[in-house]
Each structure stands twice: as structure tokens, then as C-alpha cells.
Task: structure prediction
Amino acid sequence: MSLFAFAPSRGPRWQLGLQAAIGMAVPIAVMTLLGHPTLGYIAGSGAFTVLFLGAAPVVERARVLPFVSAGLILCAALGASAGASRWLVSIGIVVIALVAALLCFGFRLGPPGPIFFVLVFGLSAQIVAHAEISLLTYIAAIAAGCLFSYLVALSPLLISHVRSHPARPLRELLPGPSYDNASRLLLLRVAIVAVLGVLIGLFVDPGRSYWIVGAGIAVIGLVTERRAAFQRGLHRMLGTILGVGVYALLALLHPSGLWIALLLGVMQFTVELVVVRHYALALMIITPLVLLLTGAATGKIGSMDVALERIIDTIVGAALGAASGVLHPRTTARE
Result:
């Protein structure tokens, strides 16, 4: 995973990118036109649903993605409920990270792993704490976003030869729960990063703990190699720093209304094209995407204080995730 070279292509990803872009942009655009943009930003996070099982046949995605959506909605509901209490948020981050890792690793869900469940929990707590929105309205908005994204992911089923593809039983798509040595080590790393990240967050700002932990879990990923952990950590740090620079430039344009919907859609599409080939480049786009999304939802778009905090949080979290890679034996091979 070189900083100066792209990994080999794993096949076309434009379809997944387009689905993610539609899942992100359309709810924001529709709710903006209806006069409720905040609900659109919340629903737009439902686009994370389509990022799972991206390489699987659509008929198989149709069976698994409801579980992903349910998990994201539950994490959002728990985060929104805990948002008023920093202690509950801190405890919740650790619990969500461990449970999500247990399920993702145990049932072989595959990429992107437990990261988005942690981020949705933390983002929900942050948005509800700063935006004037009721708990039930928040849950309804993100549930609607997840449902919309699920339907977008299933849209290829309108083509007859896509529908005719045989689908494996659910027990084969999600085998388990079972844990080999590699998955147990990954789970241990997540636990260490979650606990240390939250403890560090308590001394800095408990409201930022989810970003520290999320950065660490993203570095851990699904790969059981020391070298990969250090490389992903470096990519995460560099990509985030550059991404904050991109965010600063975009903030100067003061995007609003439908322009935000279009901008976030284009960014989400681009991320899915490059994320498997160059992690740092993807982070350079993901960082301003998340900052724009949360800033718009909380009314703090353009805040460079938040952006600078994200740099610090990412460096800390990525360092934790990379350092936890030493738990893997040097002889562990990539699975």
C-alpha cells in the first residue's frame, strides 16, 4: 500500500459509487426543496448501507443489507438517545465498537467492517446534542434514508438477468458466528483501540471520542498484518490532513442548498472509485465529506476549529490502530 502508487484494480466500482452517491444526494436534495434540509442530511447518512457487500450479486445483497440497515438504525437510535450524556456516549462507543466487531468478524461480513456503526453512533450523538430535533424524528429520518439506500442498491433487480442470478442461502452469506486466531486478534485490537480512544477522549473532549476510535478501527480494517497496520495508519493521517485542506477550500465557497447535495454526491461517488486503490486519496475526500455533512446538520459548516480537531483526533486514533498491529505475529499472512 504505497503512498505513491495505486493498488491494482479489483474491477469496476462505478455502479456501487453511483448507488452511494444517489443514496447520499437525493434525500438531501428532496428535503432541502421541502424546507427541511437537516432531515435530509440525517437521511443522507443512510447511504452507508450500500457500502457493504459491494462485490456480491444483487440478489445476495438483498438478503444481507436489511441486517446492515437495522444495525445502522439501532446505532443511530442509541447514539441519539445518549447524546445528552457524555458518559453514556463514551460507554456507548466502546460497547458499539465491540458488538459491531463481534458481529462483523464473527459472521464474515467483510469490508468496510465495523467502522460505520461506530461513526453513525457518534455522529448521531453529536447531531442531536447540537441540532433542535426530537429523538423520534431523528430515528425516522435515518430509517427513511437507510430504506431509500436499500431500494437503490436493489434497483438492478429491475433487469431480468440480474434477478435470475442464483442466491446462496443466508447461512452461507453470513456464516458463523465463528472466530479463528486472526479474527480474535482483530477483535482484541478493536477492544484496545476503543477503550484507549475513549479514555483519551475523556481528557480532551468526550464528544470527539467517536472520531478517535473510528480512525483507529478504520486503520485496523480486516487485514491481519503488522505492515498493513502501519501503512494504513500513515495513509489515514496524511489523507485526513490533506482532506482538511480540501474542506477549508470548499468552505470558502459557502456551499448551501442543492449545491451541498450535489457536492456530497460527487464526493461519495469518487470515494467509492478510489478507496480500494489508494486509501490516502480516499481519505482526502472522505474527510471533507463527513465534515460538510456534520457541519451542515449541526449548523457549523465552515468551522475550522472542528476541522483542526479532526486532524488531532485522527492522528491519535490512527496511531492507536497502527500500534495495535504489533499484536499480530510477524509470520501472519494476509487472509
About this structure: The radius of gyration is 19 Å. The chain has a mean pLDDT of 86.
